[in-house]
Design a protein that fits this description.
The protein contains 8 helices and 15 strands. It is an alpha+beta fold. It folds into 2 domains: 132 residues, Aminotransferase class 4, branched-chain amino acid transferase, N-terminal domain (D-amino Acid Aminotransferase, Chain A, domain 1), CATH 3.30.470.10; 160 residues, D-amino Acid Aminotransferase, Chain A, domain 2 (Alpha-Beta Barrel), CATH 3.20.10. Strands 7, 8, 9, 10, 11, 12, 13, 14 and 15 form a 9-stranded mixed sheet that branches. The chain has a 6-stranded antiparallel sheet with strand order 2-1-6-5-3-4, sandwiched between helices. α6 crosses α8. The longest helix has 28 residues. The radius of gyration is 20 Å and the shape is globular. Bound molecules: N-(5'-phosphopyridoxyl)-D-alanine.
């Protein structure tokens, strides 16, 4: 199983997928994207990803002339080409191996002359990449990971290119992640222009203190993570109080537990920030419980939607 790509309706293997260099997604990073995953072959929280894709596009004045159904069909066709169509529906996933899909949907301004005038690009490009979901090592969930504070670079100011836009222009994120990689860490934690914590380079940040789970508010300048919202819903439903609150360095360093969330990695415990342990330096009980409840709910919803689609097909 390898990556397959759908470029404006044409599916090829990744090596043969091409986009013109005059596409403004390439020239200017002018476009938006989403990443969703499957559980047992079933797209997870697909409607929420579609809604966020359209919200991001609206924020850059980009029309998305494709219906939700059209984007879904193209995604499913690309997954099928990649051998990930209904993978695992029979529950045959060997442990430690993922036969679930990673699907990245990109909508760009399209091809046009070298000018910022949107009128130069009458037709947006729709690119969909489907590949096996990268496996996060089990040790990351069981023992936790190290992250670093991103120094010298802050998260985009909300009134510049707002982090609410899931933009193809990912330079700010890449700069943060470069610092993490250099330090041998799995994520970098950004501060915002006020010096508060915002989010990580490709995930949302949470802390746990005195039994309460807290994450910075959207107003701190961060992506409205779909995993972030789902985690809070799941937590609150099982009696773990989850709320938004502005956070500072001291809140993170003094927390009992910390973790980050993203579509591809679910909930990853953080046990070290820079060279300092968080809590007792081990995966905390609330983080572990949230991860278990998250996975239980994801499995339940996926089973439900595959039963529903079997009934209607
Ligand atoms: N990253 N913050 C940033 C900056 C992100 O890029 C992401 C997701 C998140 C988490 O959002 P969600 O829970 O909706 O995946 C937060 C995706 C997975 C990526 O770029 O691959």
């Amino acid at each position: 199983m390898s990556a397959f790509v759908n470029v404006n309706g044409v599916i090829t293997d990744a090596a043969h997928a091409v986009i013109p260099v005059y596409d403004h997604g390439f020239l200017y990073g002018e476009g938006v994207y989403e990443v969703f995953r499957t559980y047992h072959g079933v797209p997870f929280l697909f409607d929420r990803h579609q809604a966020r894709l359209r919200a991001s596009a609206a924020r850059i004045g980009l029309g998305v002339p494709f219906t939700d159904d059209e984007i879904e069909w193209r995604s499913l066709a690309t997954m099928t080409a990649a051998g990930l169509g209904n993978a695992g529906l029979a529950g045959d996933k060997p442990s430690g191996l993922s036969n679930d899909a990673y699907v990245r949907i990109l909508v760009t301004r399209g091809v046009g002359e070298i000018t910022y005038d949107p009128a130069a690009c009458p037709t947006p490009s729709l690119v969909i990449i489907a590949k096996p979901l990268p496996v996060t090592p089990a040790a990351h969930y069981e023992q936790g990971v190290k992250v670093v504070m991103v120094e010298d670079v802050i998260r985009n100011h909300p009134e510049s290119v707002s982090p609410l836009i899931k933009s193809n222009n990912l330079l700010n994120n890449a700069l943060g992640m470069q610092q993490a990689i250099k330090a041998g860490a799995v994520e970098g934690v950004f501060r915002n222009y006020r010096g508060e914590l915002s989010e990580c380079s490709q995930s949302n940040l949470f802390i746990v203190s005195n039994g309460v789970v807290r994450t910075p508010p959207l107003e701190a300048g961060l992506l409205a993570g779909i995993t972030r919202a789902f985690t809070m819903d799941v937590g609150n439903a099982v009696g773990i109080r989850c709320e938004e609150a502005p956070l500072k360095d001291a809140d993170l360093f003094g927390a009992d537990e910390a973790f980050f969330t993203s579509t591809t990695k679910e909930i990853v415990p953080i046990v070290r920030v820079d060279d300092r342990a968080i809590g007792d330096g081990r995966v905390g009980p609330i983080t572990a419980r949230l991860l278990a409840e998250y996975r239980r709910e994801a499995e339940r919803l996926s089973a439900l939607s595959s039963r529903l689609s079997a009934r209607t097909s």
